[in-house]
Every structure is written in C-alpha cells, then in structure tokens.
Design brief:
This protein is α/β, with parallel strands linked by helices. It has a single domain (2-242), classed as 3-Layer(aba) Sandwich (Uracil-DNA Glycosylase, subunit E), CATH 3.40.470. It has 8 helices and 9 strands. The strands form 3 sheets. Strands 3-7-4-8-9 form a 5-stranded mixed sheet.
C-alpha cells in the first residue's frame, strides 16, 4: 500500500530525483522534473499564473522529519482531506514540462511539519508556526494514530473553469485511486469545500464510506488557532469513539 501511494504521488503526479534523501526541515525546495498535465492537455490551455502543485503525504514521511520515536496504537486507516494547495506562488521554482509551467510544492513532502524541537507537537504554540504540517503531526500524536494519509481533493490550485475541470479530473485520476489504495476507515474533511467535493463523487466512487466521514474546521481558518484546535479536538474525540 505504501509503495503504491508513493508511486501515485511521485511517479504519476510529480516526479522528483530518485536519489532524494530526506532532510530534517526541508528549507530548500527540491526541484521536480515533470508533473501531471491531464487537465491542461484536455483543455488546451494553461493559467497565466503557474498553479501551485501538491501531493499526498503519509505518516511514514512525517516520521522521517520528526526524529522523536513514535508508534501509534489506533491502527485504523484515517484520511485527512483538504481542498487544494495553498501558500504563496513564490515558494519554490517553476518547472516546465510538456509545454506547461507549474509551481511544485515548496516541500518534497507537501504537508511536512517544521519543528525546531524535533519532537511531536503537543501544544497550540507548537502548531502556531505551521497550521498544516505541525497541526497534522499534533493530531497524530494526540490521538495515537498509527495509519494516516493526508491529501488534497484537487492537486493544482486553479480558479474558474479550470477549477471545475481540475476537480473532475483529480477525483478520478488521483483521489479515487488514493481511496482505493489506502482504504480509509474514516475520512476527516478540513473545510466545507473539501467536504463538498468529496460528497459530489462519494455516491459514484466511494459508496462504502457512508457514515464514516466527519467535517472539521480548516486549520488555517480565520479563527484563533486555540479555538480551532479545541473545537476539532472535541469533535474528533466523539467521532473516533463512535466509529
């Protein structure tokens, strides 16, 4: 399963050098050599602003970044699902492949945490600098999760017509395959947009996940980080206990 997910993300969606060795904090973007062009080839167009790319990230990849040993006890397969890539367009080097330009993730592992302590985060203060990677690491540690996969419904950040086409293509080309490979017991949506995208295709692609999905506040929502964490913790505790 791990190898299949890795190949899907790094052989089909984005291609990086084979000799890559993970570093502790990922300060420098690693240049990729090619990427998925499904939508652009189909529409015969490309955005004026190179879209930001993303890919999935497993708990094993996060463990390569945080030196402190950790083994979870809850062995259910849990997927954290967001809408599409975020961040500045200046994070990393633009790459041209097959006549199309895109901006790959600033981190080789897109949802990677950046922690000076080198330990799994357990407080709001440790989550604060990075509401994505640090927060997901916090959830993994707090709930002793053993098998987690984090991904976006949409792998390229487009708007307008390109957004709709990308959404349709990603659901079938990547999200469907990610779900089939990972076989999540529970899917947590972060933000209503991720929930809506997933529900649009759930009946058609993922009928077995009815009753196994849960909505949470987005970690970068315009609320205090403390409120977001406390709100989500309350829902997570209840849902994990129920399921």
């Amino acid at each position: 399963m791990k190898n299949e997910l890795f190949k899907l993300n790094f052989d089909s969606l984005l291609t990086y050098p084979k000799n890559f060795t993970p570093k502790f904090r990922y300060q420098t973007p690693l240049k990729c050599s090619k990427f998925c062009t499904c939508c652009e080839k189909r529409l015969q167009c490309c955005s004026d602003q190179p879209p930001l790319m993303s890919h999935g990230c497993s708990i094993d990849e996060i463990k390569q970044i945080i030196p402190e040993p950790f083994e979870g006890t809850d062995d259910r397969s849990i997927m954290f699902l967001l809408e599409n890539p975020g961040g500045d367009y200046q994070n990393g080097c633009n790459v041209t492949y097959d006549g199309i330009e895109k901006n790959p993730p600033v981190n080789h592992f897109y949802f990677s945490p950046n922690l000076d302590s080198g330990k799994w985060p357990t407080t709001v203060e440790e989550v604060q600098p990075n509401p994505y990677g640090n927060y997901f690491a916090y959830l993994i540690k707090k709930y002793s999760l053993k098998n987690v996969y984090i991904t976006n419904c949409i792998k390229c950040k487009y708007t307008g017509d390109m957004y709709e086409k990308t959404k349709e293509t990603c659901a079938e080309e990547f999200l469907q395959k990610e779900v089939c490979i990972f076989k999540p017991d529970i899917v947590f949506f972060f933000g209503h947009k991720a929930e809506h995208i997933f529900n649009d295709v759930k009946k058609r692609l993922f009928p077995d996940l009815r009753g196994k999905t849960c909505y949470l506040w987005h970690p970068a929502a315009r609320r205090s980080r403390k409120n977001i964490i406390e709100h989500n913790d309350k829902i997570l505790v209840e849902f994990l206990r129920k399921i």
